């Protein structure tokens, strides 16, 4: 059993940067693909970014490519999402997720992820 806790959300202005963290407070994420999803009010939960077990391969949604960077620290059992040049359209609840058997699967598939955090709110004002 893995418990994930996100932190780092907040209210920022357009163009600002923000860094989200995901800590495994129970269990370990060392053998898991990690990802970030987000959900805006009234919309479904959408893929943002994912990173493989070793941290040497990443995938990004087109809407955040070039602005967001996903990373992980297996020694610290944490994941991170560095967000730059934030836009009002980035406003959402951000969720960290871990997948045990993602491997070569499509990391953007929400149902692959077994463990989820409770979310952290990011609000970008115009």
Characterization of the model:
By secondary structure, this protein is an all-beta fold. The protein has no helices and eleven strands. Strands 2, 4, 5, 6, 9, 10 and 11 form a seven-stranded mixed β-sheet that branches. β5 (45-51) and β6 form a beta hairpin. The mean pLDDT is 96.
Question: Topology, please?
Answer:
Blueprint lengths: L2 E5 L2 E4 L4 E9 L6 E7 L5 E7 L6 E3 L7 E6 L4 E6 L8 E8 L15 E2 L3 E6 L1
Mean pLDDT: 96
Contiguous helical run count:
0
Strand content: over 45%
Alpha-beta content class? mainly beta
> In percent, how helical is the residue content?
under 10%
Features:
126 residues, mainly beta, 11 strands
In short:
The chain has strands spanning about 5, 10-15, 20-25, 35-40, 45-50, 60, 70-75, 80-85, 90-100, 115, 120-125.
């Amino acid at each position: 059993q893995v418990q994930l806790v996100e932190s780092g959300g907040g209210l920022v202005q357009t163009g600002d940067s923000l860094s989200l963290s995901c800590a495994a407070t129970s269990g370990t994420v060392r053998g898991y693909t990690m990802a970030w999803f987000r959900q805006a009010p009234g919309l479904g939960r959408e893929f943002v970014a994912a990173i493989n077990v070793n941290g040497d391969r990443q995938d990004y949604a087109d809407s955040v490519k070039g602005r967001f960077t996903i990373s992980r620290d297996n020694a610290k059992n944490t994941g991170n999402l560095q967000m730059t040049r934030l836009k009002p359209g980035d406003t959402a609840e951000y969720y960290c997720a871990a997948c045990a058997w993602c491997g070569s699967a499509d990391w953007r598939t929400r149902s692959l992820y077994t463990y989820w955090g409770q979310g952290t709110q990011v609000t970008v004002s115009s």
